[in-house]
Structure formats: structure tokens, C-alpha cells
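Q: What would this chain look like folded?
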Amino acid sequence: MPSTAQYLGFVVAALILILIPGPSVMFTVSRALAYGRTQAVLTAWGNAIGTFAAATLAAVGLGALIQESALAFAVVKYAGAAYLVFLGVKALRDRKGLMAAPEDEAGSPKRALATMAEGFVVGMLNPKTILFFLAILPQFINTGSGSATVQMLLLGATFAALAAACDTVWGLVAAAARDVLRRPRPKLILSRTGGTALIGLGIAAAAGERA
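A: My prediction, written as C-alpha cells:
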């Protein structure tokens, strides 16, 4: 396992990265504005699980393929971007969801699972996340203590848990701002802002250069 100093160093590095608002924060905030508090939290945790899946892919070596193959990188990048645009269009079209009362946000368990699944797909279909893990995780591995793969999975799980906690706070703050404006018209404007932001995030992801 990583030494205590290595592990704490990774936690500090992860928090610095996570606390700088990035795509996952924008995604969670967009969902908070579009649908409210409960779906924002579910989105944040689904996204974190997807992030851990990305760490797992890096740990077993798929990240190396994406790093070396421009085609593989492009496929993952455009698939993720297209999915974000799809979610943005869905938010704009979902008038019933936009006007739902806060207590009705979660919907059925099936809807909750679907929300987490959407977050999972976005978290996993981010090639830069995989490349980040591929670049940074080995820096905190204790080569003389246990399996490197297991250590990378531990660090990936730590990163995902920290991301989930921080993104949840962002989502709750955004949802609180949404809940202040409970009248239909302002709420509709905020909801449409969330959908538009998702579409913009998808376009930005597609236009982004390979690191």
C-alpha cells in the first residue's frame, strides 16, 4: 500500500484539482439548475462512480491505449460530448421535469438509478480523466509494498469519494439558489439555463484539444 506520506500527498493533490471548478462541477450544477437538489446529488455520486471506473481502466492499462491511439481518444471524447448534448436537449424538452416540485424530484427508484447512470456515463466517458489517472496515480505508488494495480484502485476510489463530496456541495448550493425562485417563470428560466449549459459543456468537450 502507499505510505502515509504518499497517501496524504495524493489527497492534497486530489483536493486541489477537485476544488477547481471543472467539467464535473459544471455538469452537476447544470443538473441542479435543471432538476433540483435530489437529482444533483444523485448525479454527483453517479459521476464519481464513473470517475472510479475511469481510474480502474487506467489501472488495468486501457488508459495507455487511449494515450497512444488518437482514434481511441477521439471515439471516447466524441461519445462523451454527444451524451452531454443529448442530456442538455433532454433537459430543455422535459417541461414536466422542469416544473416538478422539489419533493417530487427524486421520482421512483428507477428514476434515481437512471439519474445515477447518466452521471456514471459522463464520468466514465471522459478520456482526459483516464489520462489524468494514468499520469498522476503512478506518482503515488509505493513500488516496494504490494500490487501497483491495487494501490492505483485505492487512490482512484479516494479521488472518487472526494469528488463526490465536493460536487455534492456544489450541487446543493446551486439547487438552493434554484429553490429560492419557486415561481414557475424564474424556475423555468433556471432550468433552461441548466439544459443550455449542458449542451455548451458537450460542445466544449468536443472542441477540446488532446492533452
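Residues 50 and 120 are 4 Å apart (CA to CA).
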